[in-house]
Known about the structure:
Layout: E1 8-17, E2 20-29, H1 30-37, E3 50-56, E4 76-81, H2 97-130
Antiparallel strand pairs: 1-2, 2-3, 3-4
Amino acid sequence: TPEGKTEIFYLQESYTDSTGFYVVYAPLDEQALLALSKGCNPDNVIVLPSGFAILPGGLPVEGEGKDRGTHTGTGSLLTVGFNIIDWSITNEKPITLESVQAIYGVIADTVSAIKDAVQYHNRLNNWMNEE
């Protein structure tokens, strides 16, 4: 890595079934990953998990066949969670406007990327089903 740059790695867990989908991930820097791989106490490593869950809208279809368990409604519920540390905040000093704007930007960019991915997946599936 270039001088002064920190390499970041991600631990990730994901799951999907007919009731929903989730992704949970946690960034770890190279030093933390090396320490864990050498058997250091994991309680000494800061892990800040973040992630999202997507739950389908509508009610499940009852009955048999390929549509069983699918949902009749349109849309989905997206829940996003972040653990963010702002080292500049103290008990005496309130959160700054710059911190609020940065956090808002992270949330907005993440929601937009998830929305784009879901819409692409839906368009791809619709296109494949038309043929």
